[in-house]
Design a protein that fits this description.
With 180 residues, the protein is mainly beta. It contains two helices and eleven strands. The protein is elongated.
Length: 180
Amino acid sequence: KENPNVSYFSGTASFIAPFKGSEMGTGGTDYSKITTYDGTTQRIGLSTNLSMAQQSFSFDLVSLVEKKIGAIPATDKVKWVRENVGSFYFYWLGYGNSPSGYKATIKAWNTGPGVGYVYPYSHTAATVSRLEWGISNTSLPNYIDSNGFVTFLAHSEVADGVANSTLYTDYVSLVVNMKQ
């Protein structure tokens, strides 16, 4: 598969778990809008009271590492990736808008203790701006799931039943660095 990574979107009151919601490529969404930093955004919006526009991004670290270094020299490729990736950095470029104003937040999915999205980073820009989430410490394996994926979530604030919660994504990427 040329692009082993996947994105889902939703408009619910709670955060969508990895691989839940509607997959990009359905409902008028398009992967091509988030693969190039060009000012063309993928818009996800809804007005359902207390729901938020959100989009998850799951990256296949096994495929990304093999693209970078060649075939992984191990039977358990996920274990090998957990032991040999030194850091990764997720970049999201976009913005969010809701009745409470402009705000977009990104979070990472932690598969270890305290499963769920953690460590939010936000901006309140009214135009496409960058948010970054990175890790390079001993808890890094907690962010890699049993299939070798790492997942991030971007969301806006909640709608009020009249005005929309809207998320605009221009570009996403994941930079993976191997241990030295």
